[in-house]
């Protein structure tokens, strides 16, 4: 499961109203992931190195999932508030 990945449509939509700092502050590694980092995990999982891996959830999210829902909720709240303000203006 990927976390916030740089230059994806989803992150463009989430960061457009508030900027990327709100989201990078929510990630313990303090940065977005790159597509090649997710791709590297896909390569490992499709290789013989993962021949005994079944039914596993592999999270590639810079620690976002470990930081709890609070950081994600704060980032989402900021994004929603900014989006509502744009609609009202």
From TrEMBL:
<dbReference type="GO" id="GO:0009062">
    <property type="term" value="P:fatty acid catabolic process"/>
</dbReference>
<keyword id="KW-0521">NADP</keyword>
<keyword id="KW-0560">Oxidoreductase</keyword>
<dbReference type="InterPro" id="IPR036291">
    <property type="entry name" value="NAD(P)-bd_dom_sf"/>
</dbReference>
<dbReference type="Pfam" id="PF13561">
    <property type="entry name" value="adh_short_C2"/>
</dbReference>
<protein>
    <submittedName>
        <fullName>Uncharacterized protein</fullName>
    </submittedName>
</protein>
<dbReference type="GO" id="GO:0008670">
    <property type="term" value="F:2,4-dienoyl-CoA reductase (NADPH) activity"/>
</dbReference>
<dbReference type="InterPro" id="IPR045017">
    <property type="entry name" value="DECR2-like"/>
</dbReference>
<dbReference type="InterPro" id="IPR002347">
    <property type="entry name" value="SDR_fam"/>
</dbReference>
